[in-house]
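Subject: Protein record for review, amino acid sequence with backbone structure tokens
Why sent: The fold of this protein is of interest and is recorded here as tokens.
Notation: Tokens come from a learned vocabulary of local backbone shapes, not from coordinates.
Attached in line: The record itself begins immediately under this heading.
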Amino acid sequence: MEARKAPTVVVIGLGYVGLTLSVALARRGVQVYGVEKRAEVVEKTNAGVPHFAEVGLQSALADVVRKGRFVASTTTAEVPGAEYYIITVGTPLHPQSHEPRLDMIEEATREVAEHFSEGATVILRSTVRIGTTTGVVKPILERTGKSYHLAMCPERTLEGDAMRELINLPQIVGGETPEATDNAATLFSRLTHTIVRVASPETAEMIKLVDNTSRDVRFAFANEVARACDALGINANDVIRYGKLGYTRTNVAAPGLVGGPCLEKDPHILLSSVAGQGINLEITAASRLVNERQPCETVGNILQRLKARRAGPYRAVVAGLAFKGRPETDDLRGSMSLHVIREMMASEQFSEIRVYDSVVPMENIRAISSGISPYEDLHTACEGADVLVIANNHPEYSKLDLETIIGTMSDDAFVYDYWNNLSEMPAEVLEHRYVTVGNLVGKFQ
């Protein structure tokens, strides 16, 4: 049987979504051209060097660049025509209104409109407000007078595991027409055998928002449990851990910081999507409120514990700056660790805030604020400190020698762990030294 001819694809935007998708497609024989405005990213990409940390990406990128399967450019001017165009640009929120910005989608679509030929398939993969595919992208393409096919295929990969998930996760495909759905499905079937065809682009847009909002709601309830337990002097971790042992109808998440480039944004996009429809999504809105006030509340808890031990000012260490540690990433977008640092600064109770992350490049750490002291070694950072705040779940934190760390810190110092990295250690090791969210007043005080 004759093999299918590999298509040519132009990917607009080489961030986390665009670069990993480009490499995954190129590894399956697709000729991919990436378009990215940032010249430094294009230069690194064409040298086979990714501009962010992602497991398996370094070797895969180098391979497809060496074979000529993937070429990056700052514009479409020197890129040949293609059968497919995939828009993967970011959709950040306006800081005050939390409304999603459309300018990057509009700009990318205009670039596609100027370049594509009759019959091309345009795929939107960015996370967007419901109706963006047909209400924003389509009118721009329509003005060209050329024929095209339009589909929405949302990105749903986990940072740090994207290269594996791109070939294992089902791909959602929602075309404006059956032929558009078929075309998009044909492309993504090169990645995975599991294609889920849905009724419309709006359905596909909604699936992405609901996926992430459901997780935000689940984590918010865990943080509510922690707040209730703090108020009543009960250990929330005991309540959550033991309450679900052998009891499958309950599966409460662990409390802690909830952020990242998706969870901090997508619930707001969902709220914006229905704002003009006369309804209010109370659970979605309340969950965001609970999760967004975590840094303020928990820094207050940390200060309450510090003040109970001695007068300030205090020296703090914040370890784990990326928004998560498993799978590891160097992504600071949506990092709640940065909000914790800002709350510490705003309290004016800390004489020094030392920071550490073994994955985030030091130049990115220094760019966070002039009011922090970056360290390349955690043990050195902890010397003489009053509190170590573990702010993500990188594997190194679950292997910490707590007694050695505490031994380098000040008298009555303690560890405040947002992610329960060490909670399985014996109680006699943790007592008076180790605090978690939902354990402000409990047996470790």
